[in-house]
Design brief:
single chain; alpha+beta; Jelly Rolls
């Protein structure tokens, strides 16, 4: 495989899954992605990204995805079990900067439509990792012509500048911690 690389397996995702189960109110507090047709069928929790405060105050989000210094959102502090996963992956790939961090949930029968990530964040944070928290064998990720059913506890690098999608035809939700990192190549 060229567009996806498994970089770890066997991570214990149970502590974070328990924190998520105990705090269902954390899902969909921000509509950045869910409002886009490509992500309509999924739920998410944003842990880190651009500071929302000035945009909320002005009501103008037109430059929200422009160059910025990411900050931790309250959800980061509500889900402390995410920290060792995120920082462990930073060390594993020798990242120099941490960008956006979010958790996505694709329900059984749901999907993420084919798309290519663009813009400043996707380009600057050149290493995107999926930490698979929960999945099933009928949930398939596609990047270009490559397809894989990612298992819980695995971590996958993938090239998000190539068209990708996810189709969950299985009986269980697929939950993934997405970590955007800057690595010097």
């Amino acid at each position: 495989m060229r567009n996806m690389v498994k970089i770890a397996a066997g991570l214990d995702t149970a502590p974070l899954l328990l924190e998520l189960a105990r705090q269902p109110r954390l899902w969909n507090r921000r509509g950045f992605r869910k409002d886009l047709p490509v992500h309509r069928e999924m739920d998410d929790i944003w842990l880190r990204y651009n500071d929302e405060k000035p945009f909320k105050e002005s009501g103008d989000y037109s430059t929200f995805n422009d160059e910025h210094e990411s900050v931790f959102y309250p959800e980061w502090f509500a889900l402390p079990s995410a920290r060792p996963l995120v920082y462990g992956m930073m060390a594993r790939v020798q990242a120099t900067r941490l960008g956006g961090v979010l958790i996505t949930r694709i329900p059984a029968g749901g999907s993420i439509a084919p798309h290519v990530d663009g813009g400043w964040h996707a380009t600057y944070y050149n290493t995107k990792l999926y930490v698979v928290l929960q999945s099933n064998p009928q949930c398939v990720n596609r990047v270009g012509e490559e397809r894989v059913a990612m298992a819980p506890g695995e971590v996958w690098y993938f090239d998000n500048t190539i068209e990708h999608d996810v189709v969950n035809e299985g009986p269980d939700d697929r939950m993934t911690l997405i970590v955007c990192l800057r690595c010097e190549k």
